[in-house]
Design goal:
44% of the residues lie in helices and 15% in strands. It is α/β, with parallel strands linked by helices. The protein folds into two domains: 126 residues, Alpha-Beta Complex (Aspartate Aminotransferase, domain 1), CATH 3.90.1150; 240 residues, Aspartate Aminotransferase, domain 2 (3-Layer(aba) Sandwich), CATH 3.40.640. A hairpin with a 4-residue loop joins β6 and β7. α1 packs antiparallel against α10. Bound molecules: pyridoxal-5'-phosphate. Pyridoxal-5'-phosphate binds next to α3.
C-alpha cells in the first residue's frame, strides 16, 4: 500500500470538494449558466484579493499573469524597478528584458526582504513607471512587507505590481487598503486547485498605463478582457472545469474566513520553524522576514540534501521541495499553504526525522515533532 502526501509550494493538495467539482460534466462556456459561474468566481476572487476592482481570470499558470502585467503596463524603452531576492524576483527582470523594458534592479541578499527605503531611493533616482515586487519569494521562504512598500510607491507616479502567486490566500495582502495596484496569482498554491489558471487584479491607476502602453500583446491583452467582461464574458475559451472547481475552493476559503486561513498557515510555518530549531537545523530566511507560506531549511553540513528530499518522496511518499537555482542541494522547503493542517505538518516532520536519522544526522528522535505539537497547543 502506498499513500502520498504533498507539501510543496505548488501544486498543493486538492480538497475533495475541488476534486468533485472537477469531475462534473462540462458545460458550454458561452451560456448564461457559465456566465453565472464566472460571476460567482470573480466575486469570490475579489474577497480573497481584498479588492473592489475586477479580477481577471487567465488561462495560464501564474507566470502568464506576470507576463500579462509586464506586456500591458509597459512600452519598449520604459523603465521598471525589479527586486531580485530570489528566483521569482529574477523572473520579473527576465520578463522585462523580453519586452525591451529597461530594468533598475535592486539586488537583495536572498535570505532578506527588500526595505521600503530601498524602493523609495530607487524611485527618486529613476523614472520608473512600474515597481515589481514579490509577496512571498517561494525560492527562499522570505515574505516582503508589501504594506510599507505600497506606502512608498503610492505617492509617486509609479504603479506597484505584486507577485502573490504563492502568497494569495496564505498571507494577508490588503490590495485596496494598502494600494497594491496590480496583484497577480495562480491557481495551484493557496487556492487549492490544479495548475492552469492565472489571476490579475488592476487598480484605476494601473488602467491608465494599460490604456496607453505600446508593448505587443494579444492573448493576454487586458483591454480585451475588460471589454469582454462588460458582457460577463471572456475573450477566449475559459477552462470551464477549473473555474467550476475554483468556486468550490473559494467557498471553502470564505467559510473558513480569510483571517482564520492566515492564522492556520502562520501557525503551520511557525511549527516547522520550531521543529527545525529543535532538530538543530538552521533556517535559511532571516527571522525578521520568515514566510508564513513556505519554510526553507538549510541542509546540515555533510548531508546530501537532494537525497533527503528524494528519499522522503520515493521511499515514504512525502513530497517536500528541494532548493531552486543557487540553493539546489543547499536547502529543503516545507510548504504551509493550501489544503494542509497541523497534522499534515506533523506527519511531514516525522518523515523528515526518520530520513535524517537514517542518513546519520544526530538529534533526539521526536524532538521536532514535539516542538511542532507545542506550537499547535499554544
Ligand atoms: C510558483 C510561483 C511562480 C510561478 O508560477 P507558475 O504557476 O509556475 O507559472 C511565480 N512566483 C512565485 C512567487 C511563485 O511561488
Amino acid at each position: 500500500m502506498r499513500k502520498t502526501y504533498l507539501l510543496t509550494p505548488g501544486p498543493t493538495p486538492l480538497p475533495p470538494q475541488v476534486c468533485e467539482a472537477l469531475a462534473r460534466p462540462i458545460i458550454h462556456h458561452r451560456t448564461p449558466q457559465f456566465q453565472a459561474i464566472l460571476k460567482e468566481a470573480v466575486e469570490g476572487l475579489k474577497y480573497v484579493f481584498q479588492t473592489k476592482s475586477d479580477v481577471f481570470i487567465l488561462s495560464s499558470s501564474g507566470t502568464g499573469a506576470m507576463e500579462a502585467a509586464v506586456a500591458n503596463l509597459l512600452s519598449p524603452g520604459d523603465t521598471a524597478i525589479t527586486v531580485e531576492g530570489g528566483k521569482f524576483g529574477e523572473r520579473w527582470t527576465e520578463l522585462c528584458y523580453a519586452y525591451s523594458v529597461h530594468t533598475e534592479i535592486i539586488k537583495v541578499e536572498w535570505s532578506r526582504a527588500v526595505k521600503a527605503e530601498e524602493i523609495k531611493a530607487k524611485l527618486k533616482a529613476t523614472k520608473a513607471k512600474v515597481v515589481f515586487t514579490t509577496l512571498c519569494e517561494t525560492s527562499t521562504g522570505v515574505t516582503t512587507d508589501i504594506k510599507s512598500i505600497a506606502e512608498a510607491v503610492k505617492n509617486s507616479e509609479a504603479v506597484l505590481v505584486v507577485d502573490a502567486i504563492s502568497g494569495l490566500g496564505v498571507i494577508d495582502l490588503k490590495t485596496d487598503e494598502w494600494a497594491a495596484d496590480v496583484v497577480v496569482s495562480g491557481s495551484q498554491k493557496g487556492l487549492m486547485l490544479p495548475p492552469g489558471l492565472g489571476f490579475i487584479s488592476i487598480s484605476q491607476k494601473a488602467w491608465k498605463l494599460i490604456d496607453t502602453a505600446r508593448s505587443p500583446r494579444y492573448y493576454f491583452d487586458l483591454r480585451a478582457a475588460k471589454k469582454a467582461w462588460a458582457q460577463a464574458d471572456t475573450p477566449f475559451t475559459t477552462p470551464v472545469s477549473l473555474v467550476v472547481a475554483l468556486n468550490a475552493a473559494l467557498k471553502m476559503l470564505k467559510e473558513e474566513g480569510l483571517e482564520n486561513v492566515f492564522t492556520r498557515c502562520r501557525k503551520m510555518a511557525e511549527a516547522v520553524r520550531a521543529a527545525a530549531s529543535a532538530l538543530g537545523l538552521k533556517l535559511y530566511a532571516d527571522a525578521s522576514c520568515a514566510s508564513e507560506a513556505i519554510t526553507a531549511i538549510n541542509v546540515p553540513f555533510g548531508l546530501d540534501g537532494e537525497k533527503l528530499v528524494k528519499t522522503m518522496r520515493d521511499i515514504y511518499g512525502v513530497t517536500i521541495a528541494g532548493g531552486q537555482a543557487e540553493l539546489k542541494g543547499k536547502v529543503f522547503r516545507i510548504a504551509s499553504m493550501g489544503y494542509l493542517n497541523e497534522f499534515d505538518i506533523i506527519l511531514a516532520l516525522s518523515c523528515l526525522e526518520k530520513v535524517l536519522y537514517q542518513m546519520g544526522y544526530k538529534f533526539e528522535l521526536g524532538a521536532g515533532v514535539r516542538a511542532a505539537q507545542e506550537v499547535f497547543l499554544k
